[in-house]
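Hi W.,

Here's what went into the run:
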Amino acid sequence: MTHDQERLTTRSSDVLSISRHSEGKDFMKGVLFLALALSAVQGISPLHAETPTGTLVGRILYVGPAIPDQVFEVTRDSGFCGAQATIRTVTIHPKTRGLEGAVVSIDGVAVPLSDPAAPALVLTNTRCAFTPRLATGVVGQQVEIRNDDPVMHNTHISMGSRTLVNVAMIPASRPVWKPLKQSGIYTVKCDAHKFMQAHILAFTHPFFSITDETGAFRIPSLPPGEHQVTIWHDTLGTVHQSVTIAATGDTHVTLEYPNHADARKQ
Amino acid sequence: MHAKRLKYIAILIITGLCASTAQAVKPTTNRDSLREGRRIYEQACAWCHGTGGEGDGPAGWFIGRYSSPRPRNFAQDGYKFRSTGSGDLPTDQDLFTTITRGIPGVMPAYRALNERERWQVIAYLKSWNPAFEEEKPVPLTFPQAPAAPTEAAIHNGRNLYVKYDCRVCHGDNGEGDGPEATAGHLRDGNNLPIRATNLTDPSAWKNGASALDLFRTLTTGLDGTPMPSYANEFAGREEALWELVWYIQSLSDQQRK
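Here's what came out:
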Protein backbone atom coordinates (compact mmCIF):
# COMPACT_ATOMS: atom_id res chain seq x y z
CA MET A 1 0.00 0.00 0.00
CA THR A 2 1.39 3.39 -0.93
CA HIS A 3 1.80 6.33 1.36
CA ASP A 4 -0.87 8.18 -0.60
CA GLN A 5 -3.35 5.46 0.01
CA GLU A 6 -2.81 5.73 3.73
CA ARG A 7 -3.26 9.50 3.54
CA LEU A 8 -6.87 9.88 2.60
CA THR A 9 -7.86 13.48 3.10
CA THR A 10 -10.05 14.10 6.09
CA ARG A 11 -12.24 17.12 6.73
CA SER A 12 -12.67 19.11 9.91
CA SER A 13 -15.97 17.51 10.78
CA ASP A 14 -14.60 14.01 10.44
CA VAL A 15 -13.84 11.70 13.28
CA LEU A 16 -11.27 9.65 11.46
CA SER A 17 -8.30 8.12 13.13
CA ILE A 18 -5.22 7.28 11.05
CA SER A 19 -3.83 5.02 13.75
CA ARG A 20 -4.52 1.45 12.63
CA HIS A 21 -2.90 -0.70 15.21
CA SER A 22 -3.88 1.05 18.34
CA GLU A 23 -4.40 -0.76 21.60
CA GLY A 24 -7.93 0.62 21.59
CA LYS A 25 -8.71 -1.41 18.48
CA ASP A 26 -7.60 -4.61 20.14
CA PHE A 27 -9.68 -3.72 23.16
CA MET A 28 -12.74 -3.14 20.99
CA LYS A 29 -12.20 -6.45 19.26
CA GLY A 30 -12.22 -8.12 22.66
CA VAL A 31 -15.37 -6.33 23.68
CA LEU A 32 -17.03 -7.30 20.40
CA PHE A 33 -15.99 -10.91 20.79
CA LEU A 34 -17.40 -11.01 24.30
CA ALA A 35 -20.64 -9.47 23.09
CA LEU A 36 -20.94 -12.03 20.33
CA ALA A 37 -20.27 -14.90 22.71
CA LEU A 38 -22.91 -13.64 25.15
CA SER A 39 -25.43 -13.07 22.41
CA ALA A 40 -24.86 -16.58 21.08
CA VAL A 41 -25.56 -18.01 24.52
CA GLN A 42 -28.74 -15.99 24.78
CA GLY A 43 -29.81 -16.89 21.25
CA ILE A 44 -30.20 -13.32 20.04
CA SER A 45 -28.72 -11.36 17.16
CA PRO A 46 -25.41 -9.67 17.96
CA LEU A 47 -26.83 -6.46 16.62
CA HIS A 48 -30.10 -6.67 18.45
CA ALA A 49 -32.18 -3.51 18.51
CA GLU A 50 -31.17 -2.88 22.11
CA THR A 51 -27.47 -3.00 21.26
CA PRO A 52 -26.09 0.45 20.53
CA THR A 53 -25.18 0.87 16.90
CA GLY A 54 -24.03 3.75 14.79
CA THR A 55 -24.34 4.69 11.15
CA LEU A 56 -21.50 5.70 8.88
CA VAL A 57 -22.65 8.45 6.54
CA GLY A 58 -20.29 9.99 4.06
CA ARG A 59 -19.21 10.97 0.61
CA ILE A 60 -16.34 9.84 -1.58
CA LEU A 61 -14.66 12.59 -3.57
CA TYR A 62 -12.34 12.54 -6.53
CA VAL A 63 -10.62 15.80 -7.39
CA GLY A 64 -7.79 14.43 -9.52
CA PRO A 65 -7.36 14.92 -13.23
CA ALA A 66 -10.11 13.77 -15.54
CA ILE A 67 -9.76 10.20 -16.72
CA PRO A 68 -10.91 9.72 -20.30
CA ASP A 69 -13.64 7.28 -21.21
CA GLN A 70 -12.65 4.02 -22.87
CA VAL A 71 -13.69 3.70 -26.50
CA PHE A 72 -13.82 0.28 -28.18
CA GLU A 73 -14.29 -0.66 -31.79
CA VAL A 74 -17.18 -3.08 -32.06
CA THR A 75 -16.17 -5.98 -34.26
CA ARG A 76 -19.22 -8.18 -33.77
CA ASP A 77 -22.94 -7.44 -33.98
CA SER A 78 -22.15 -3.82 -34.78
CA GLY A 79 -25.51 -3.55 -36.52
CA PHE A 80 -27.15 -3.78 -33.13
CA CYS A 81 -24.37 -2.79 -30.71
CA GLY A 82 -23.13 0.16 -32.77
CA ALA A 83 -19.78 0.79 -34.43
CA GLN A 84 -18.18 1.94 -31.18
CA ALA A 85 -18.80 1.34 -27.51
CA THR A 86 -17.90 3.94 -24.91
CA ILE A 87 -17.28 2.89 -21.32
CA ARG A 88 -17.44 5.69 -18.82
CA THR A 89 -14.61 5.08 -16.35
CA VAL A 90 -14.97 7.78 -13.70
CA THR A 91 -18.23 9.64 -13.13
CA ILE A 92 -17.98 12.78 -11.01
CA HIS A 93 -20.91 14.86 -9.80
CA PRO A 94 -20.39 18.42 -11.10
CA LYS A 95 -21.43 20.13 -7.87
CA THR A 96 -20.27 17.84 -5.08
CA ARG A 97 -17.24 16.35 -6.89
CA GLY A 98 -18.57 13.08 -5.50
CA LEU A 99 -17.48 9.82 -7.12
CA GLU A 100 -20.30 7.63 -8.35
CA GLY A 101 -19.99 3.85 -8.28
CA ALA A 102 -17.43 3.32 -5.53
CA VAL A 103 -18.04 0.47 -3.09
CA VAL A 104 -17.55 1.33 0.56
CA SER A 105 -17.33 -1.57 3.00
CA ILE A 106 -16.31 -2.28 6.55
CA ASP A 107 -14.61 -5.63 6.99
CA GLY A 108 -13.54 -7.42 10.10
CA VAL A 109 -16.81 -7.10 12.01
CA ALA A 110 -17.69 -10.61 13.10
CA VAL A 111 -21.41 -10.35 12.62
CA PRO A 112 -23.32 -13.09 10.82
CA LEU A 113 -25.67 -12.16 8.04
CA SER A 114 -29.15 -11.51 9.33
CA ASP A 115 -30.85 -12.25 6.01
CA PRO A 116 -29.13 -15.03 4.08
CA ALA A 117 -32.15 -15.35 1.77
CA ALA A 118 -31.57 -12.01 0.05
CA PRO A 119 -33.30 -11.52 -3.31
CA ALA A 120 -31.31 -12.44 -6.40
CA LEU A 121 -29.00 -9.91 -7.97
CA VAL A 122 -30.33 -9.43 -11.50
CA LEU A 123 -27.63 -8.95 -14.13
CA THR A 124 -29.07 -8.18 -17.55
CA ASN A 125 -27.39 -8.11 -20.94
CA THR A 126 -29.10 -5.15 -22.47
CA ARG A 127 -28.07 -3.01 -25.45
CA CYS A 128 -24.68 -4.74 -25.45
CA ALA A 129 -23.89 -3.73 -21.88
CA PHE A 130 -24.37 -5.20 -18.44
CA THR A 131 -27.03 -3.61 -16.29
CA PRO A 132 -26.02 -2.85 -13.63
CA ARG A 133 -22.30 -2.43 -14.26
CA LEU A 134 -21.65 -2.66 -10.54
CA ALA A 135 -23.47 -4.78 -7.99
CA THR A 136 -22.89 -5.84 -4.41
CA GLY A 137 -24.18 -8.91 -2.61
CA VAL A 138 -23.49 -11.46 0.05
CA VAL A 139 -22.01 -14.93 -0.19
CA GLY A 140 -24.76 -17.40 -0.98
CA GLN A 141 -26.91 -14.83 -2.76
CA GLN A 142 -28.09 -15.84 -6.20
CA VAL A 143 -27.09 -13.98 -9.35
CA GLU A 144 -29.81 -14.05 -12.01
CA ILE A 145 -28.41 -13.61 -15.52
CA ARG A 146 -30.72 -12.40 -18.27
CA ASN A 147 -30.42 -11.43 -21.91
CA ASP A 148 -32.78 -8.82 -23.32
CA ASP A 149 -30.84 -8.37 -26.56
CA PRO A 150 -31.59 -9.88 -29.98
CA VAL A 151 -27.95 -11.03 -30.21
CA MET A 152 -26.12 -13.81 -28.41
CA HIS A 153 -24.04 -12.97 -25.36
CA ASN A 154 -21.66 -15.11 -23.35
CA THR A 155 -21.82 -14.09 -19.71
CA HIS A 156 -18.60 -15.07 -17.99
CA ILE A 157 -18.21 -14.32 -14.28
CA SER A 158 -14.92 -15.16 -12.60
CA MET A 159 -12.72 -14.34 -9.65
CA GLY A 160 -9.07 -14.48 -10.58
CA SER A 161 -8.50 -17.66 -12.56
CA ARG A 162 -11.58 -19.44 -11.21
CA THR A 163 -14.85 -19.30 -13.10
CA LEU A 164 -18.08 -18.75 -11.20
CA VAL A 165 -20.18 -19.31 -14.29
CA ASN A 166 -19.72 -19.06 -18.06
CA VAL A 167 -22.96 -19.43 -19.96
CA ALA A 168 -24.13 -18.87 -23.51
CA MET A 169 -27.13 -16.54 -23.55
CA ILE A 170 -28.88 -16.58 -26.89
CA PRO A 171 -31.75 -14.17 -27.58
CA ALA A 172 -34.80 -14.89 -25.42
CA SER A 173 -32.82 -17.26 -23.20
CA ARG A 174 -34.24 -18.40 -19.94
CA PRO A 175 -32.54 -16.75 -16.96
CA VAL A 176 -29.59 -18.54 -15.38
CA TRP A 177 -29.02 -18.56 -11.64
CA LYS A 178 -25.75 -19.05 -9.81
CA PRO A 179 -24.93 -18.36 -6.15
CA LEU A 180 -21.96 -16.23 -5.12
CA LYS A 181 -19.55 -18.76 -3.68
CA GLN A 182 -16.93 -16.67 -1.95
CA SER A 183 -16.26 -13.12 -0.89
CA GLY A 184 -14.21 -10.87 -3.13
CA ILE A 185 -14.36 -9.09 -6.46
CA TYR A 186 -15.98 -10.92 -9.35
CA THR A 187 -15.25 -9.77 -12.88
CA VAL A 188 -18.13 -10.01 -15.35
CA LYS A 189 -17.41 -10.01 -19.05
CA CYS A 190 -18.87 -11.19 -22.31
CA ASP A 191 -16.46 -13.26 -24.35
CA ALA A 192 -18.49 -12.40 -27.44
CA HIS A 193 -18.27 -8.61 -26.91
CA LYS A 194 -15.01 -7.62 -25.26
CA PHE A 195 -16.18 -4.14 -24.39
CA MET A 196 -18.86 -5.46 -22.05
CA GLN A 197 -17.68 -5.48 -18.47
CA ALA A 198 -19.10 -5.28 -14.97
CA HIS A 199 -18.17 -6.19 -11.40
CA ILE A 200 -19.88 -7.89 -8.50
CA LEU A 201 -18.46 -7.50 -4.99
CA ALA A 202 -19.48 -10.21 -2.55
CA PHE A 203 -19.24 -9.93 1.21
CA THR A 204 -19.75 -12.14 4.25
CA HIS A 205 -21.38 -9.29 6.20
CA PRO A 206 -23.99 -6.60 5.55
CA PHE A 207 -21.73 -3.56 5.98
CA PHE A 208 -21.31 -2.24 2.46
CA SER A 209 -22.76 0.44 0.21
CA ILE A 210 -22.38 1.80 -3.33
CA THR A 211 -21.95 5.55 -3.69
CA ASP A 212 -24.77 7.28 -5.52
CA GLU A 213 -24.46 9.91 -8.26
CA THR A 214 -23.37 12.52 -5.69
CA GLY A 215 -20.74 10.23 -4.15
CA ALA A 216 -22.82 9.68 -0.99
CA PHE A 217 -23.11 6.43 0.94
CA ARG A 218 -24.63 5.17 4.17
CA ILE A 219 -23.82 2.04 6.21
CA PRO A 220 -26.13 1.50 9.18
CA SER A 221 -26.13 -0.85 12.21
CA LEU A 222 -22.41 -0.69 12.89
CA PRO A 223 -20.97 -1.60 16.26
CA PRO A 224 -19.36 1.46 17.81
CA GLY A 225 -15.60 1.71 17.80
CA GLU A 226 -12.77 1.81 15.35
CA HIS A 227 -13.22 0.09 12.00
CA GLN A 228 -11.32 -0.30 8.80
CA VAL A 229 -13.10 1.21 5.79
CA THR A 230 -12.29 -0.16 2.35
CA ILE A 231 -13.16 1.85 -0.74
CA TRP A 232 -13.02 0.19 -4.16
CA HIS A 233 -13.54 1.63 -7.60
CA ASP A 234 -13.05 -0.31 -10.84
CA THR A 235 -10.79 2.34 -12.36
CA LEU A 236 -9.29 4.12 -9.35
CA GLY A 237 -8.47 1.00 -7.33
CA THR A 238 -8.63 0.24 -3.62
CA VAL A 239 -7.85 2.39 -0.61
CA HIS A 240 -8.28 1.85 3.11
CA GLN A 241 -9.00 4.16 5.99
CA SER A 242 -9.68 3.87 9.69
CA VAL A 243 -12.87 5.35 11.08
CA THR A 244 -14.31 5.51 14.58
CA ILE A 245 -18.03 4.94 14.79
CA ALA A 246 -19.87 6.77 17.53
CA ALA A 247 -21.97 4.74 19.96
CA THR A 248 -25.17 6.30 18.67
CA GLY A 249 -26.29 8.39 15.73
CA ASP A 250 -24.49 9.19 12.53
CA THR A 251 -20.76 9.46 12.03
CA HIS A 252 -20.06 11.76 9.10
CA VAL A 253 -16.97 11.41 6.94
CA THR A 254 -15.76 12.82 3.65
CA LEU A 255 -13.06 10.77 2.00
CA GLU A 256 -11.04 11.84 -0.98
CA TYR A 257 -9.50 9.42 -3.46
CA PRO A 258 -5.74 9.88 -3.62
CA ASN A 259 -4.55 11.42 -6.83
CA HIS A 260 -1.73 9.01 -7.37
CA ALA A 261 -1.03 6.73 -10.28
CA ASP A 262 0.00 3.83 -8.04
CA ALA A 263 -3.40 3.79 -6.41
CA ARG A 264 -5.15 3.56 -9.74
CA LYS A 265 -3.14 0.52 -10.73
CA GLN A 266 -4.61 -1.61 -7.95
CA MET B 1 -4.94 -38.94 -44.85
CA HIS B 2 -4.42 -42.57 -43.87
CA ALA B 3 -2.35 -41.53 -40.87
CA LYS B 4 -5.11 -39.21 -39.77
CA ARG B 5 -7.61 -42.03 -39.86
CA LEU B 6 -5.32 -44.21 -37.76
CA LYS B 7 -4.94 -41.38 -35.26
CA TYR B 8 -8.70 -41.06 -35.02
CA ILE B 9 -9.11 -44.80 -34.42
CA ALA B 10 -6.42 -44.65 -31.74
CA ILE B 11 -8.30 -41.88 -29.98
CA LEU B 12 -11.47 -43.97 -29.95
CA ILE B 13 -9.61 -46.98 -28.53
CA ILE B 14 -8.01 -44.89 -25.79
CA THR B 15 -11.38 -43.38 -24.98
CA GLY B 16 -12.84 -46.85 -24.60
CA LEU B 17 -10.02 -47.95 -22.32
CA CYS B 18 -10.47 -44.88 -20.21
CA ALA B 19 -14.15 -45.62 -19.81
CA SER B 20 -13.23 -48.95 -18.23
CA THR B 21 -10.66 -47.50 -15.85
CA ALA B 22 -13.10 -44.81 -14.78
CA GLN B 23 -14.87 -47.40 -12.63
CA ALA B 24 -11.93 -47.72 -10.26
CA VAL B 25 -12.82 -47.82 -6.58
CA LYS B 26 -11.46 -44.87 -4.63
CA PRO B 27 -9.52 -45.81 -1.49
CA THR B 28 -9.97 -43.95 1.79
CA THR B 29 -7.84 -40.85 2.21
CA ASN B 30 -5.65 -40.77 5.30
CA ARG B 31 -2.30 -39.42 6.37
CA ASP B 32 -0.39 -42.31 4.82
CA SER B 33 -2.13 -42.01 1.47
CA LEU B 34 -1.53 -38.25 1.41
CA ARG B 35 2.14 -38.82 2.13
CA GLU B 36 2.32 -41.35 -0.68
CA GLY B 37 0.37 -38.97 -2.95
CA ARG B 38 2.96 -36.29 -2.26
CA ARG B 39 5.80 -38.65 -3.13
CA ILE B 40 4.20 -39.56 -6.44
CA TYR B 41 3.25 -35.97 -7.17
CA GLU B 42 6.79 -34.74 -6.68
CA GLN B 43 8.07 -37.38 -9.07
CA ALA B 44 5.38 -37.15 -11.74
CA CYS B 45 3.70 -33.74 -11.54
CA ALA B 46 5.92 -31.15 -9.85
CA TRP B 47 8.06 -30.55 -12.92
CA CYS B 48 5.18 -28.63 -14.48
CA HIS B 49 2.81 -27.88 -11.61
CA GLY B 50 5.47 -26.97 -9.04
CA THR B 51 6.21 -28.49 -5.65
CA GLY B 52 3.62 -26.19 -4.09
CA GLY B 53 1.02 -26.92 -6.76
CA GLU B 54 0.92 -23.35 -8.04
CA GLY B 55 1.67 -24.17 -11.67
CA ASP B 56 5.18 -22.81 -11.34
CA GLY B 57 7.37 -25.86 -11.78
CA PRO B 58 10.65 -25.60 -13.69
CA ALA B 59 8.88 -26.44 -16.93
CA GLY B 60 6.38 -23.70 -16.20
CA TRP B 61 8.96 -21.20 -17.37
CA PHE B 62 8.43 -22.27 -20.95
CA ILE B 63 5.04 -24.01 -20.83
CA GLY B 64 2.25 -21.47 -20.93
CA ARG B 65 4.60 -18.55 -20.52
CA TYR B 66 3.02 -16.50 -23.29
CA SER B 67 0.04 -18.51 -24.41
CA SER B 68 -2.51 -20.91 -22.98
CA PRO B 69 -2.45 -23.40 -21.37
CA ARG B 70 -0.29 -22.71 -18.36
CA PRO B 71 0.16 -25.62 -15.89
CA ARG B 72 -2.72 -25.62 -13.43
CA ASN B 73 -2.44 -23.80 -10.14
CA PHE B 74 -4.10 -26.35 -7.87
CA ALA B 75 -4.52 -23.80 -5.10
CA GLN B 76 -6.90 -21.51 -6.97
CA ASP B 77 -7.63 -22.30 -10.63
CA GLY B 78 -10.94 -23.63 -11.83
CA TYR B 79 -11.12 -26.88 -13.82
CA LYS B 80 -11.91 -27.31 -17.48
CA PHE B 81 -12.70 -31.02 -17.65
CA ARG B 82 -15.65 -31.88 -15.48
CA SER B 83 -18.97 -33.62 -15.32
CA THR B 84 -20.30 -30.81 -13.10
CA GLY B 85 -22.00 -27.51 -13.85
CA SER B 86 -20.23 -24.37 -15.03
CA GLY B 87 -18.09 -22.93 -12.24
CA ASP B 88 -18.32 -26.04 -10.08
CA LEU B 89 -15.37 -28.11 -8.95
CA PRO B 90 -14.76 -31.46 -10.62
CA THR B 91 -15.67 -34.72 -8.97
CA ASP B 92 -12.88 -37.05 -7.90
CA GLN B 93 -13.88 -39.27 -10.80
CA ASP B 94 -13.36 -36.36 -13.20
CA LEU B 95 -9.84 -35.86 -11.88
CA PHE B 96 -9.18 -39.57 -12.15
CA THR B 97 -10.30 -39.53 -15.77
CA THR B 98 -8.07 -36.57 -16.64
CA ILE B 99 -5.00 -38.16 -15.04
CA THR B 100 -5.73 -41.46 -16.75
CA ARG B 101 -6.41 -39.99 -20.19
CA GLY B 102 -3.96 -37.13 -20.09
CA ILE B 103 -4.71 -34.06 -22.17
CA PRO B 104 -3.88 -34.32 -25.88
CA GLY B 105 -0.96 -32.10 -26.76
CA VAL B 106 -0.59 -30.85 -23.22
CA MET B 107 -0.31 -33.50 -20.49
CA PRO B 108 0.69 -37.16 -20.77
CA ALA B 109 -1.62 -39.98 -19.76
CA TYR B 110 -0.52 -41.39 -16.40
CA ARG B 111 -1.64 -44.95 -16.99
CA ALA B 112 1.79 -46.04 -15.79
CA LEU B 113 0.61 -45.19 -12.29
CA ASN B 114 -1.64 -47.85 -10.85
CA GLU B 115 -5.13 -46.85 -9.87
CA ARG B 116 -4.30 -46.61 -6.18
CA GLU B 117 -1.44 -44.24 -6.95
CA ARG B 118 -3.68 -42.05 -9.10
CA TRP B 119 -6.21 -41.73 -6.29
CA GLN B 120 -3.42 -40.86 -3.85
CA VAL B 121 -2.18 -38.08 -6.11
CA ILE B 122 -5.73 -36.75 -6.45
CA ALA B 123 -6.16 -36.61 -2.67
CA TYR B 124 -2.86 -34.75 -2.39
CA LEU B 125 -3.49 -32.12 -5.07
CA LYS B 126 -6.97 -31.44 -3.68
CA SER B 127 -5.44 -30.66 -0.30
CA TRP B 128 -4.13 -27.35 -1.67
CA ASN B 129 -7.55 -25.91 -2.40
CA PRO B 130 -9.87 -25.38 0.60
CA ALA B 131 -12.82 -25.10 -1.78
CA PHE B 132 -12.79 -28.89 -2.02
CA GLU B 133 -13.67 -28.97 1.69
CA GLU B 134 -16.42 -26.37 1.36
CA GLU B 135 -18.10 -27.39 -1.89
CA LYS B 136 -19.57 -30.73 -2.76
CA PRO B 137 -19.48 -31.08 -6.55
CA VAL B 138 -22.41 -33.02 -7.95
CA PRO B 139 -22.06 -34.66 -11.37
CA LEU B 140 -24.66 -33.88 -13.97
CA THR B 141 -26.61 -36.70 -15.55
CA PHE B 142 -25.63 -37.49 -19.12
CA PRO B 143 -27.78 -39.74 -21.29
CA GLN B 144 -26.37 -42.44 -23.49
CA ALA B 145 -25.94 -41.44 -27.11
CA PRO B 146 -28.90 -42.42 -29.27
CA ALA B 147 -28.56 -44.60 -32.34
CA ALA B 148 -26.47 -43.52 -35.31
CA PRO B 149 -27.42 -40.09 -36.66
CA THR B 150 -29.36 -39.50 -39.82
CA GLU B 151 -28.42 -37.01 -42.52
CA ALA B 152 -31.38 -34.88 -41.44
CA ALA B 153 -30.11 -34.82 -37.84
CA ILE B 154 -26.67 -33.72 -38.97
CA HIS B 155 -28.28 -31.03 -41.11
CA ASN B 156 -30.22 -29.80 -38.06
CA GLY B 157 -26.95 -29.81 -36.15
CA ARG B 158 -25.41 -27.52 -38.74
CA ASN B 159 -28.25 -25.06 -38.23
CA LEU B 160 -27.63 -25.14 -34.49
CA TYR B 161 -23.91 -24.62 -35.08
CA VAL B 162 -24.79 -21.39 -36.88
CA LYS B 163 -27.55 -20.35 -34.48
CA TYR B 164 -25.32 -20.69 -31.41
CA ASP B 165 -22.45 -18.78 -33.00
CA CYS B 166 -20.03 -21.74 -32.76
CA ARG B 167 -18.48 -20.60 -36.02
CA VAL B 168 -17.51 -17.23 -34.55
CA CYS B 169 -14.66 -18.98 -32.71
CA HIS B 170 -14.37 -22.39 -34.37
CA GLY B 171 -14.86 -21.17 -37.93
CA ASP B 172 -17.47 -21.91 -40.54
CA ASN B 173 -15.93 -25.31 -41.29
CA GLY B 174 -14.81 -25.98 -37.72
CA GLU B 175 -11.12 -25.46 -38.35
CA GLY B 176 -10.63 -23.16 -35.38
CA ASP B 177 -10.35 -20.13 -37.62
CA GLY B 178 -13.42 -18.12 -36.74
CA PRO B 179 -13.17 -14.31 -36.75
CA GLU B 180 -12.79 -14.03 -32.97
CA ALA B 181 -9.99 -16.60 -33.02
CA THR B 182 -8.09 -15.14 -35.93
CA ALA B 183 -8.41 -11.63 -34.50
CA GLY B 184 -6.66 -12.85 -31.31
CA HIS B 185 -9.59 -11.90 -29.09
CA LEU B 186 -9.76 -15.19 -27.20
CA ARG B 187 -8.17 -15.24 -23.72
CA ASP B 188 -8.06 -17.81 -20.95
CA GLY B 189 -8.51 -17.34 -17.21
CA ASN B 190 -4.91 -16.15 -16.88
CA ASN B 191 -5.50 -13.62 -19.69
CA LEU B 192 -3.24 -15.62 -21.97
CA PRO B 193 -4.08 -15.94 -25.68
CA ILE B 194 -5.92 -19.18 -26.38
CA ARG B 195 -6.79 -20.91 -29.64
CA ALA B 196 -10.21 -22.15 -30.62
CA THR B 197 -10.25 -25.93 -30.97
CA ASN B 198 -9.96 -27.30 -34.48
CA LEU B 199 -13.11 -29.40 -34.68
CA THR B 200 -11.89 -31.24 -37.76
CA ASP B 201 -9.09 -32.91 -35.77
CA PRO B 202 -10.49 -35.09 -32.95
CA SER B 203 -7.00 -36.01 -31.78
CA ALA B 204 -6.68 -32.43 -30.50
CA TRP B 205 -9.92 -32.41 -28.50
CA LYS B 206 -8.75 -32.02 -24.94
CA ASN B 207 -11.96 -33.13 -23.27
CA GLY B 208 -12.36 -36.34 -25.26
CA ALA B 209 -13.57 -37.22 -28.72
CA SER B 210 -16.55 -39.52 -28.20
CA ALA B 211 -20.10 -38.32 -28.79
CA LEU B 212 -20.70 -38.40 -25.04
CA ASP B 213 -17.53 -36.36 -24.45
CA LEU B 214 -18.76 -33.69 -26.86
CA PHE B 215 -22.21 -33.71 -25.24
CA ARG B 216 -20.54 -33.23 -21.86
CA THR B 217 -18.26 -30.44 -23.10
CA LEU B 218 -21.16 -28.52 -24.59
CA THR B 219 -23.15 -28.98 -21.39
CA THR B 220 -20.48 -28.03 -18.85
CA GLY B 221 -18.40 -25.60 -20.89
CA LEU B 222 -14.67 -25.39 -20.27
CA ASP B 223 -14.05 -23.20 -17.25
CA GLY B 224 -11.15 -20.81 -17.57
CA THR B 225 -11.66 -20.52 -21.33
CA PRO B 226 -14.16 -18.60 -23.49
CA MET B 227 -16.07 -21.86 -24.16
CA PRO B 228 -19.39 -21.41 -22.35
CA SER B 229 -21.88 -23.88 -21.00
CA TYR B 230 -24.92 -24.49 -23.22
CA ALA B 231 -26.77 -26.40 -20.50
CA ASN B 232 -29.38 -23.69 -20.15
CA GLU B 233 -30.05 -23.50 -23.87
CA PHE B 234 -30.52 -27.25 -24.30
CA ALA B 235 -32.30 -28.03 -21.05
CA GLY B 236 -35.14 -30.38 -21.99
CA ARG B 237 -33.91 -30.49 -25.60
CA GLU B 238 -31.24 -33.16 -25.39
CA GLU B 239 -32.12 -34.43 -28.85
CA ALA B 240 -31.11 -31.09 -30.35
CA LEU B 241 -27.82 -31.20 -28.46
CA TRP B 242 -27.11 -34.65 -29.91
CA GLU B 243 -27.72 -33.21 -33.36
CA LEU B 244 -25.13 -30.54 -32.70
CA VAL B 245 -22.73 -33.23 -31.45
CA TRP B 246 -23.23 -35.28 -34.58
CA TYR B 247 -22.66 -32.30 -36.81
CA ILE B 248 -19.38 -31.54 -35.04
CA GLN B 249 -18.30 -35.16 -35.42
CA SER B 250 -19.25 -35.04 -39.08
CA LEU B 251 -16.73 -32.26 -39.63
CA SER B 252 -13.88 -34.71 -39.21
CA ASP B 253 -15.73 -37.34 -41.22
CA GLN B 254 -16.05 -34.80 -44.01
CA GLN B 255 -12.35 -34.21 -43.86
CA ARG B 256 -11.66 -37.89 -44.46
CA LYS B 257 -13.90 -38.08 -47.51
